[in-house]
Amino acid sequence: MSKTSAQTQIARAPLTRQFALEVSAGLAKPGQKELPSKYLYDSVGSALFEVICALPEYGLTRAEERLLQLQAREIVDQLPRPVLVAELGSGTGRKTRLLLEALARWQSTWYHPIEISPSALAVLRRELRDINSISIVGFEREYLDGLREVAARRATGEHLLVLFLGSTIGNFDGAAGSDFLRDLREILQAGDSLLLGTDMLKPVQTLLAAYDDSIGVTASFNLNLLARINRELGADFNLQQFAHIAIFNEATHSVEMHLRSRSRQKVVIPEASISVQFEKDETIWTESSHKYSHDELVSLAHHSGFHRQAQWMDQSWGFAENLWIAE
Ligand code: AVI
Description:
- With about 325 residues, this protein is of the alpha/beta class.
- The protein is about 40% helix and about 25% strand.
- It contains ten helices and 13 strands.
- A hairpin with a 4-residue loop joins strand 12 and strand 13.
- It is globular and about 60 Å long.
- N,N-dimethyl-L-histidine binds near residues 167, 168, 170 and 289.
């Protein structure tokens, strides 16, 4: 083994350990088994997510791109100056570029993507390096830890703009979304801004098609989580024995992705030191994607300590870009 690969393995060990612990806790849960949705995004899952964004049934990403194409200048013109930009989760940079180019018209800007994946940060640096007047310094951290670092770097009089695009906030389960926004607000100073992308409630049929597309990309994205457990934790999930399902939970206004066991079966996960029994039709809950109403956004802003400055809506899909100011 080369020195570099030995070092990489040592660095990866705690991450694998954490993955094993969370897999074991989720699958040993009494009642509904579950797996954390953040583990959908290894390199295969991230590539599949890119394909999902291009699917005709999944209008969310295109809607947000349309909005930013039309409104980036107007959004940026509402911000206090000078402004420092932090982004939670970096994506491919396509949407961010529109905002940074609009900002570059009137100031040179520090841009800090915060992202736990080093490869995603590297892609972003490459994609955005040609924008004049933008200096990029990324942080390989959990969202709020990274944001604390950015906040600590601001110069006196400089405002902070936090970008949280793509309705990623909708993937926080239950109250975790509003708790997260409250914690985020605590890091900000009054007058700082948050640009929050939110996917809106829409007909159930449209939602179910978006999360269970006709060529099975979302199914592969979901099943890849079991394949990842096989690859990284030595498990023996037979992928043919699980089916992807998407359901709309009327009580929580969320689309849920599950993996349904097609038969009664046992799966062994050596690196997590467990074996798991599945009944026929029992499911593993892998992701929630919350869909927002106007009234909910009003109360979410209020309860997390923000004033709603402006909102831009893509009516054809139902997606909102919300500009909130810390009170
Ligand atoms: C990243 N996130 C906003 C996506 C969503 O729509 O909730 C993840 C996704 N899951 C299945 N399709 C897309």
